[in-house]
Design goal:
Largest sheet of chain B: none
Distance between the termini of chain A: 62 Å
Structural class of chain A: alpha+beta
Strand content of chain B: under 5%
Oligomer: heterodimer
Shape of chain B: globular
Number of helices of chain B: 9
Radius of gyration of chain B: 18 Å
Strand order of the largest sheet of chain A: 1-2-3-7-6-5-4
Chain lengths: ~200, ~180
């Protein structure tokens, strides 16, 4: 290879002719509109609002019953909120509740994994002192106008902390900052919808 | 870094989504084509990507780097396609599905130099091809590429270095063959 500019020209020569024409755009729009219409049908409205939460509650009860003999004290929480947004390639592995040392502050932990060695967890617990100071080693960030704190470590791990009126949240793992904020934002939106009911 | 296009609700879908397609549609389609070398499959990926863009419309404003985000969706959608059983069957039957690197060069690449380079890049193994595409064609930073592929920046730099070495070796051996 002579130089990097030639490499760029070679790629442009091969790819620049590929364009998304109006026909493809039209078909894409139609597919999305059709998908939205389906979501508006009663059966689709029923699923996310009733069937899905019911399924999640049953799953939680099942998990709790299977892990009843753990050393840590277990107690159910009233609601499990899964993030609506999970980055591509990641998937949720398990949802558990753990009381930890203090039985009055139950934690919900969602463990997720991704291809390769990317994995992490998202957890939240009832907050005893909402609005506390920034933790040491973290720097402030915001998402959707909400205050949060972030810590980045050398091996691409990040930890994002935030809280609302009731809970403290902690998202930790090998994930980009943008994806972490999107996950965090999708939980907040979900909770906001729940709170407004 | 370009500003994300706002798309607040379904009523604004037409304009909002069209603006995203205007801005990133070609990049998505080219990425998918580069991966899959099949126009039809690339168009399927294009539709899938913008469907996901639409479904994430509530979070788009928080997007720090919309281009990298869209390309990440595209790359993952391509990987999903390549993991499907039928795709593996296609690869077993014919090591290159339908539109091959050669056909592309015949149709579109003008100069001999560009043609050689295009062929060499197309023949690079994964994950070197993707790193080259995102760095040299989409002109993303190593940090952005690391975010897309979920690997460290150092890994991307290493892949690019190795890719350049492989390209150099391929082109030199090609040139030597021509001289013989």
């Amino acid at each position: 290879m002579r130089n990097e500019e030639e490499l760029k020209r070679g790629l442009r020569g091969g790819l620049d002719r590929i364009t998304a024409g109006p026909e493809l755009r039209r078909r894409t729009m139609e597919r999305i509109v059709a998908g939205e219409r389906n979501r508006d049908k009663p059966v689709f409205r029923f699923f996310p609002h009733i069937a899905l939460p019911a399924f999640m509650v049953l799953a939680l009860i099942l998990i709790l019953s299977l892990t009843a003999d753990r050393h840590v004290q277990q107690q159910p929480v009233s609601k499990v909120v899964l993030p609506e947004y999970v980055p591509e390639g990641y998937r949720v592995n398990e949802v558990v509740t753990e009381a930890g040392k203090d039985a009055e502050t139950p934690e919900v932990v969602i463990r997720y994994s991704a291809s390769g060695d990317n994995a992490g967890k998202l957890e939240w617990k009832q907050s005893a002192k909402p609005g506390g100071p920034a933790p040491e080693g973290f720097e402030p960030v915001t998402f959707e106008g909400r205050q949060a704190w972030i810590r980045r470590t050398g091996d691409d791990n990040i930890t994002l902390l935030w809280e609302d009126e009731k809970y403290e949240y902690r998202l930790e793992g090998k994930i980009s900052e943008g994806d972490a904020k999107l996950m965090a934002g999708s939980i907040y939106l979900h909770k906001k919808e729940d709170d407004s009911r | 870094m370009s500003e994300p296009v706002r798309m607040r609700n379904p009523k604004e879908m037409g304009d909002g989504l069209a603006a995203w397609m205007d801005r990133y549609g070609d990049a998505v389609l080219r990425t998918a084509y580069f991966y899959l070398r099949d126009r039809q499959r690339a168009e399927d990926v294009y539709q899938e990507v913008f469907l996901r863009v639409y479904r994430n419309r509530g979070s788009l404003e928080a997007m720090e780097n919309p281009k990298a985000w869209v390309l990440k969706i595209a790359v993952n959608a391509c990987r999903d396609v390549m993991r499907r059983p039928w795709w593996k069957k296609v690869l077993l039957i014919d090591s290159r599905p339908r539109e091959t690197a050669e056909s592309v060069e015949q149709e579109a690449v003008d100069s001999e130099t560009n043609r050689e380079l295009w062929r060499s890049v197309s023949e690079l193994a994964e994950p070197f091809r993707t790193a080259v595409l995102l760095y040299y064609y989409h002109e993303l930073s190593t940090k952005e590429i690391g975010g897309i592929l979920n690997v460290s920046e150092g890994t991307i730099r290493s892949r690019l270095h190795r890719a350049r070495q492989m390209l150099k070796e391929n082109l030199e051996s090609e040139a030597a063959r021509h001289e013989e």
